[in-house]
């Protein structure tokens, strides 16, 4: 017998649907959506819904009818089970035969029983005696042992939660570094592991709820910084019940088409979850230049601390008028604004190594976000200055804008995992190359990215660089044949008139090919996800040296007379 259940997820913490633990059911309601109108109406009446108009099959009216009926089924069974009031969210998916149903839970075993009862009633479409069935399944839920309570952590130390499409790892590392400059014992979790006081505790992607748990379990911890990715929120929910400061760097197209998230607006909904569980006395730190991010302040119980590179941004005026604070760039200084006081300069942008003398606009924003979060926590101004000025790209931020000098040319290793990240990488490459020299770029993507994104990467890279190659992320192909990815990359490159795009099995081999062709003044860059450590080791064995902040400043100054790059 077929079932309407596609997937059941028990979310342990705040999620897209509720600010507490919830059960999420993905349901196939084809029987209800494709049934003749009389049969659909009869089912609605049998489950206790009054007058309804199902609408024609395949219409938006029929989809809304299915949403209404499904929500009523959940509430009716809960009532039969003795649950007086229950929050229910029913949302459509891109496939109009599927719905997502979510409801909060306090006891896991009973919540699972309720989920099973919902499925049983939906599976009984067209059967007789539906009222009796709902009474039966409701009684079963009522008699089910309660089971475990949600494992959501209630932190006893300050927590900063960081999310966004680009910059969340860099920003969370910066905040942790500032915390250590303030003399605190700091734990933080990110996409490349769990750290405590700068030491790796556990390697792996810990940007989900397990990362928060690992961090908060460290003995002696005084501050926790958790990188919070969309995947963890969707699969298990946020691992902590609340945070003291939430930070959202930006929201751009990434991972679309996965986990029922098909649009940038839906992605923003997911990322806004951390702002909704920020303590009322805390701060919600948002990017004032990103409309979706800026709007998140309206759903947060916390005060807003906005950041923007533009001191005259309307977002800054709005937040200051609301009684919030802002961090911006004023006369070359990272500066804090508050309606009640004079502007407070912290340090010059050019003295923050991660900004590459102000060349990296994204990292200027990351520095503004980190300063806002640290000050929102109440960390000393001196610690913020020390932390930002001593945070070095290669040493403190591996895999993000790491720059080397080799035989008179520059090599850059950066994640650059989406269109915005690649454009930021090209901005840096153009900013340090000598006039008349070339940009050589190794492209790459995990196998689960949508074709339009991979094609866009091919087009952006081919347009912006003088030579491109494909370096596969062999450990992240996720079942996709390399030849298929190559075809999509080449399609994107061909759209801007570039046909010569060789491919290599790994990021390292692509980098080795491009480095062999580089001349003094050129810039070679690698979009690196898996081979960062081996790339670093190989470059050093070739005689490459890590660029110091002084080296970076010198490169930027030498390149200043030349503006723009190929295709600009």
TrEMBL record:
- What InterPro entries does this protein map onto? Mur-like_cat_sf (IPR036565), Mur_ligase_C (IPR004101), Mur_ligase_C_dom_sf (IPR036615), Mur_ligase_cen (IPR013221)
User: Can you name this protein?
Assistant: Mur ligase
What the entry lists under Pfam families is as follows: Mur_ligase_C (PF02875), Mur_ligase_M (PF08245)
Native organism: Kribbella yunnanensis
Question: Where do the segments described as Disordered lie?
Answer: 540-568
Q: Where is the Mur ligase central domain?
A: 162-374
- Compositionally biased region (Basic and acidic residues): 550-560
Report domain Mur ligase C-terminal positions: 399-528
């Amino acid at each position: 017998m077929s079932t309407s259940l596609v997937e059941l997820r028990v979310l342990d913490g705040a999620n897209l649907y509720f600010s507490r633990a919830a059960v999420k059911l993905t349901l196939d309601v084809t029987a209800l959506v494709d049934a003749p109108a009389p049969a659909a109406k009869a089912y609605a009446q049998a489950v206790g819904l009054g007058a309804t108009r199902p609408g024609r099959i395949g219409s938006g009216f029929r989809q809304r009818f299915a949403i209404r009926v499904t929500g009523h089924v959940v509430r009716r069974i809960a009532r039969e089970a003795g649950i007086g009031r229950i929050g229910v969210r029913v949302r459509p998916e891109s496939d109009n035969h599927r719905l997502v149903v979510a409801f909060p839970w306090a006891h896991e075993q009973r919540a699972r029983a309720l989920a099973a009862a919902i499925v049983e009633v939906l599976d009984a479409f067209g059967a007789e005696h539906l009222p009796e069935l709902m009474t039966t399944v409701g009684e079963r839920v009522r008699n089910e042992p309660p089971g475990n309570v949600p494992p959501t952590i209630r932190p006893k130390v300050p927590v900063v939660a960081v999310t966004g499409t680009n910059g969340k790892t860099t920003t969370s590392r910066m905040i942790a570094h500032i915390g250590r400059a303030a003399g605190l014992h700091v734990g933080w979790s990110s996409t490349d592991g769990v750290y405590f006081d700068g030491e790796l505790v556990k390697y792996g992607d810990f940007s989900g709820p397990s990362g928060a748990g690992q961090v908060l379990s460290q003995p002696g911890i005084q501050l926790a910084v958790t990188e919070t990715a969309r995947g963890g929120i969707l699969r298990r929910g946020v691992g902590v019940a609340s945070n003291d400061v939430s930070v959202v760097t930006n929201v751009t197209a990434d991972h679309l088409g996965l986990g029922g998230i098909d649009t940038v607006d839906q992605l923003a909904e997911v990322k806004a979850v951390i702002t909704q569980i920020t303590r009322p006395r805390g701060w919600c730190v948002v990017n004032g230049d990103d409309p979706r991010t800026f709007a998140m302040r309206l759903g947060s119980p916390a005060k807003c601390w906005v950041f923007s590179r533009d001191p005259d941004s309307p977002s800054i005026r709005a937040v200051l008028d609301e009684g919030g604070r802002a961090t911006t760039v004023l006369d070359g200084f990272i500066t804090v604004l508050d309606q009640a006081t004079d502007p407070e300069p912290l340090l010059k942008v050019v003295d923050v190594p991660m900004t590459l003398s102000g060349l990296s606009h994204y990292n200027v924003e990351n520095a503004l976000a980190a300063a806002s979060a640290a000050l929102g926590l109440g960390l000393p101004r001196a610690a913020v200055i020390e932390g930002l000025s001593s945070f070095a790209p290669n040493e403190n931020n591996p895999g993000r804008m790491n720059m080397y000098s080799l035989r008179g040319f520059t090599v850059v290793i950066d994640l650059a995992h989406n269109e915005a990240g690649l454009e930021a990488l090209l901005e840096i490459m153009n900013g340090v190359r000598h006039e008349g020299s070339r940009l050589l770029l190794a492209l790459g993507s995990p196998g689960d990215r949508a074709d339009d994104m991979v094609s866009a990467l091919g087009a952006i890279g081919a347009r912006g660089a003088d030579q491109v190659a494909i370096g596969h992320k062999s450990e992240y192909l996720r079942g996709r044949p390399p030849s298929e990815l190559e075809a999509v990359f080449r399609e994107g490159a061909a759209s801007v008139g570039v046909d010569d795009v060789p491919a290599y099995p790994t990021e390292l081999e692509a980098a080795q090919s491009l480095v062999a062709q580089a001349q003094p003044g050129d810039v070679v860059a690698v979009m690196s996800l898996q081979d960062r450590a081996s790339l670093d080791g190989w470059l050093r064995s070739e005689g490459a040296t890590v660029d110091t902040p002084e080296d970076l400043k010198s490169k930027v100054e030498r390149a200043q007379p030349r503006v723009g790059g190929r295709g600009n």
